[in-house]
Every structure is written in structure tokens, then in C-alpha cells.
Amino acid sequence: MKRLATLLAMTASAALAADLKPTKDAGPYVPSPQSVVSDMLRYADVGANDFLIDLGSGDGRIVLTAAKVFGARGFGVDIKEDLVKRANEAAHNEGVAERVKFVKQDLFETDVSQATVVTMYLLPDTVNMLKDKFLRELKPGTRIVSHDYPLTGWIPDKYVQMDLEDKVQISGVTTTLIYLYIVPAKVAGRWEARMPPAISKQPASLTLKQQQVTRVSGSLRLDGRDVPLEEVKLRGDQITFRLAGHKGGFSGVVKDGAIEGTFDSGNNRTPWSASLRG
């Protein structure tokens, strides 16, 4: 019986150590060149206050660099046991094991809600399978950095193209692309707005429409007529716009179904706010 128990324990241990079967095959492990890693983190303005999650972390170089060079915390996930072990050993050897770790996990099942920055170098279809997950789990303002492949339908906050000889052995070409996205707040809907007296002394109705995730259009109903919004920009939880035919600009912060902001007329700044109906 003792031998049988030992055999079963060894079998269970071997099964645990085996590579996970992913929800979807994300392709073979291909590391980002170290120069690209540094650029990805630099363009995302990674710093000591950030918590970075790398999806498909491989040997851990992105998370390790974020910790050693930029002072960030975080973790990486991969389905390959040997890569996870190697990355954790590197974290100990390089003195950052208290700030970072690596776990064997399916990236599609990983909770990313803690992240302020998400990085990835994944195949195009895998990248785009993650879009709904990002919108569902990530907080507005979270930065997403993708090496080579874009989030289709999302407008990047930054887009960088460069040529690197290191990429030839990976993709056969020198072309290297870095996409930076900022997770937007959800603003689509009807808002009850309280405008500055210079605009309206009565409650107004603000309508916002969200297309391509980060692109917003809308109008403000004033005194029975709809005034289009111009130059609408949404970056994380920060929204700015102008009113057609009016001088000055609006800015605000979106949080928990409310917008609190200021109107800058050019001469003075006055508060405005809005609350989401329903």
C-alpha cells in the first residue's frame, strides 16, 4: 500500500509539473529582443508605482527588466514549466524575487485586474481574443503594450515602427512594431449634465457614443437643440471636448457613472459635472 501511495504521489506530481494545455495554442515561445523590451517599457512610462503583468512571459525578461531597470512590481504567466522555473530562478539570482514572480498558468484564465501595465508578444489572433477580457477586467487608464501585433479596432495611444537586425532571426525581417493602448472608461450613454452658467443655467442632456473602443462622439442638448461635441478625446478616464460654436474647452474625469471636471473659457475655469442616466 505504501508503494502504491508513493507511486500515485509521484504520478500526481509529474502531472502537475507537465505543461498546461491552453485554452488556445498561442504559438511557440519567441522572445522579444532585449532592446525591444526596453523600448516597450519606456514607451509605456513604466515606473516604481506600476504593477506589470506579462502574458506569455517566457524566460521572464520583460518582467525582470521592469523590476530591475524601472522599479516596477508584477508577475508573468506561461504554460511551459521549464520557462517558468527558469524565470523564477533568474528573479532570485538578480535580486528581484520579492517584487516579481512567474506562474504556470493559461493566459486566458489569468486575472489581470491588478495590472497597471500589461505586456505581450503573442500571435495576432491570440492578441485579439484578449480584447474583451481587457475591457472587462482592466481599470481605465491601464496601459497595454503589444509587440508587433495590434488590437484590431483599437486606436493606439502611441505607435512606433523601427528596424532591428535582431528581429531577422525571429521573423525574417527587421521591421519591429510597438503598440501602446490606454484602456478607456466606458462613457457611452445619456448623461444628466450640470453646465457652467456661461453655457446653461438649466440641466442639460449629454449624449456620448463610443466607437472603436476609444473613439467618442456626441452632442449636448441645450435649450431644445442639440449642439455637437468637437475634438472629443478619451484617454483612460480622462475626457476632453469642445462645444460647436462656443469658445473654451471641457475636461473631466470619469468614475463610477459620474464625470467631474472644469470648463476653461480662456478667462476663467468653472466646474461642470454629469451623471449617467440609468
- CATH fold title of the largest domain: Rossmann fold
- Helical content stands at 10-25%
Q: What structural class should be given to the helix and strand makeup?
A: alpha+beta
Low-confidence stretches: 1-17
Shape assignment: elongated
**Order of strands across the biggest sheet?**
8-9-10-11-12-13-14-15
Average residue pLDDT: 89
Radius of gyration: 24 Å
Work out the helix count.
7
Largest sheet: 8 strands, antiparallel, barrel
* Topology as a string of helices (H) and strands (E): HHEHEHEEHHEEHEEEEEEEEE
Using DSSP, what is the number of strands? 15
Would you identify the CATH H-level superfamily of the largest domain? Vaccinia Virus protein VP39
N-to-C terminal Cα separation, in Å? 64 Å
Tally of individual domains:
2
**Class of the largest domain in CATH?**
Alpha Beta
Which SSEs are present, and which pair or pack?
Elements: H1 2-17, H2 34-43, E1 51-55, H3 61-68, E2 73-78, H4 81-93, E3 100-104, E4 117-120, H5 124-129, H6 131-137, E5 143-147, E6 158-163, H7 168-171, E7 175-182, E8 189-194, E9 204-211, E10 215-222, E11 225-235, E12 238-243, E13 249-255, E14 258-264, E15 269-276
Parallel strand pairs: 1-2, 1-4, 2-3, 4-5
Antiparallel strand pairs: 5-7, 6-7, 8-9, 8-15, 9-10, 10-11, 11-12, 12-13, 13-14, 14-15
